[in-house]
Amino acid sequence: MGSSHKKQGKIADNNAKKAKVFSKLVRLIQVEAKKSGGDVNSAGLSAAIKKAYKENMPKDNVERAIKKASEAGDTTEVMYEAYGPAGIGMIITGLTDNTNRTNQDVKTILTKNGGSMGAQGSVAWNFTLDENRDWVANTPMDVDDASREILENLIELLDENDDVQNVYHSANL
């Protein structure tokens, strides 16, 4: 009797995690579809669709997101450069309908958790975009265990923000 409740709890946790990931991916697909005019062969939309399939998002959800892109409100792509614990470079990307709110949210999370916002270009020089439109560190840094724990906590808090899509860093974890 008790194990079925545990199983249901795990299923509910997994469903909640999937829903959060799916909602972020839908927003990403909608922005890329809007930019490309719905052309699934464009690099940005193609990469967004590949990310969705990698997370096992159903095909009809992807198609619905592309179709809905024309109806979606004004969503803006944002990119923040930041420093984490021990000077680790971070790039935080997101999609938002209110850039001021998202900027303040990200800034608050960073400040309260051992990080700080960087100026434009202060971190991006150490990263390159790969073919999947993900930022990859050119010179990864080794970090001690304490900094690693702080960084992992910081990344988790940033990921919980609905407007944040991805957090890239230059640490070897």
How would you characterize the overall build of this protein?
This protein has 5 helices and 8 strands. Helices cover 50% and strands 20% of the residues. The model has no long low-confidence stretch (mean pLDDT 85). The chain folds into 2 domains: 2-68, Integrase, N-terminal zinc-binding domain (Arc Repressor Mutant, subunit A), CATH 1.10.10.200; 76-172, 2-Layer Sandwich (Alpha-Beta Plaits), CATH 3.30.70. It is globular. It is an alpha+beta fold. A 4-stranded antiparallel beta sheet has the order 3-1-2-7. It has a two-stranded antiparallel ribbon with strand order 4-5. Helix 1 crosses helix 3.
State the share of residues found in helices, binned by percent. Answer: 40-55%
Based on helices, strands and strand pairing, what is the structural class? alpha+beta
Poorly predicted tracts of residues = none
Radius of gyration: 18 Å
Total domains: 2
**CATH homologous superfamily placement of the largest domain:** YebC, transcriptional regulation domain
Number of strands: 8
- Gap from first CA to last CA: 40 Å
Outline the secondary-structure elements.
Blueprint: H1 2-36, H2 43-54, H3 59-68, E1 76-83, E2 89-96, H4 99-112, E3 116-117, E4 127-129, E5 135-137, E6 141-142, H5 145-160, E7 164-169, E8 171-172
